[in-house]
C-alpha cells in the first residue's frame, strides 16, 4: 500500500467513524486541533489502524502521532516487513 492508498483508507475511517469530511483529512491536518479528535477518538483510530494493518500498535508509538501525515507514517511502519 502506498501513501496515497493509505491516505484514502484513513479518509474512509475518519468519515465512517468520526463523521469528518474526507476533504479535511490532509497529511498536514492536526488530529486534535483541526479535526477535533479527543483521546477516546484516538483510541478508536488506533483500533481501526490495527484492523487495517493486522498488526498491534504500541501505545508509546501512537502517543507521538499528531497529524494525519504521522498516521500515514505509522501505518507504513506497521505494513513494512518485520526484521
UniProtKB/TrEMBL annotation:
A GO biological process held by the record: lipid A biosynthetic process
Pfam families, alphabetized: PP-binding
Entry keyword annotation includes Disulfide bond: no
Chief place where the protein resides: cytoplasm
GO cellular component, one term: membrane
Function: Carrier of the growing fatty acid chain in fatty acid biosynthesis.
Protein name, per record: Acyl carrier protein
Amino acid at each position: 500500500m502506498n501513501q496515497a492508498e493509505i491516505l484514502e483508507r484513513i479518509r474512509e475511517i475518519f468519515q465512517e467513524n468520526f463523521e469528518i469530511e474526507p476533504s479535511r483529512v490532509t497529511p498536514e491536518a492536526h488530529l486534535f486541533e483541526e479535526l477535533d479528535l479527543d483521546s477516546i477518538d484516538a483510541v478508536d483510530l488506533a483500533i481501526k489502524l490495527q484492523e487495517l494493518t493486522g498488526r498491534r500498535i504500541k501505545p508509546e508509538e501512537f502517543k507521538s502521532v499528531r497529524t494525519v501525515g504521522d498516521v500515514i507514517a505509522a501505518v507504513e511502519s506497521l505494513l513494512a516487513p518485520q526484521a
